Amino acid sequence: MPSTTRPPSPPTARPHLRWRTRWATTSPRRARSTLDLLGDRFTLLCGPAVATSLEPVGAEAARLGVPLATIAIEDPAFFEAYGLSKSGAVLVRPDGYVAARHPGQAGLAPGLLAHGLRRALGLDPDPSR
Questions:
Q1: SS3 state at 112
Q2: pLDDT tens digits, one per residue of 33-63
Q3: Peptide bond into 11 cis (omega under 30)
Q4: Cα–Cα distance between 40 and 52 in angstroms, integer?
Q5: In terms of residue numbers, what domain contains 88?
Q6: Where would I find the beta strands (DSSP E) of the chain?
Q7: Which of 7, 21, 70, 110 is the most exposed place for a label (fewest CB within 10 A)?
Q8: How many domains are contained in the chain?
């Protein structure tokens, strides 16, 4: 009889799909499951070099009264597994689904990720974005 167990799904950072876990090194160099990084808030996962350039996403969350945690990931394997460059970022909803992602070019990410935040909340997107 053939096995009915399926192999584990690979990690994904595609919007509207459930976040898949993997181990990653966060600042300050602590190995953690990416599921442990999520909580009852929106979570922005990005590289340490771009965390400050994503502050507009945090400002938008604060303006909307939405809790947001920005977590810097140092592990290069994390970015490779999720199809992101080190200047990429992914926004995960509190229920564990990906709200938005930007594979790289951090200059474009804040607007895209803030738009993803507004869409995840069911708000009308800003027509200028």
A1: helix
A2: 888 888 899 999 988 888 888 888 899 999 9
A3: no
A4: 22
A5: 23-120
A6: 23-26, 30-33, 42-46, 68-72, 89-92, 98-102
A7: 7
A8: 1
8 inside domain: no
Percent of the chain past pLDDT 90, that is, above it, reads 19
User: In the chain, count of helices (H) and strands (E)?
Assistant: 4, 6
Q: DSSP 3-state helix, strand, coil percentages of the chain (rounded to 5)?
A: 25, 25, 50
Three-point CA angle 101, 125, 13, nearest 5° = 15
Contacts of 58 (CB under 8 A, 6+ apart): 44, 68, 70
HSE value, Cβ hemisphere, 13 Å, CA-based, for 20: 13
Q: What is the CATH number of the domain that holds 30?
A: 3.40.30.120
Beta bridge partners of 77: none
Pairing relationship of beta strands 42-46 and 89-92 according to DSSP bridges: antiparallel
Global pTM reads: 0.78
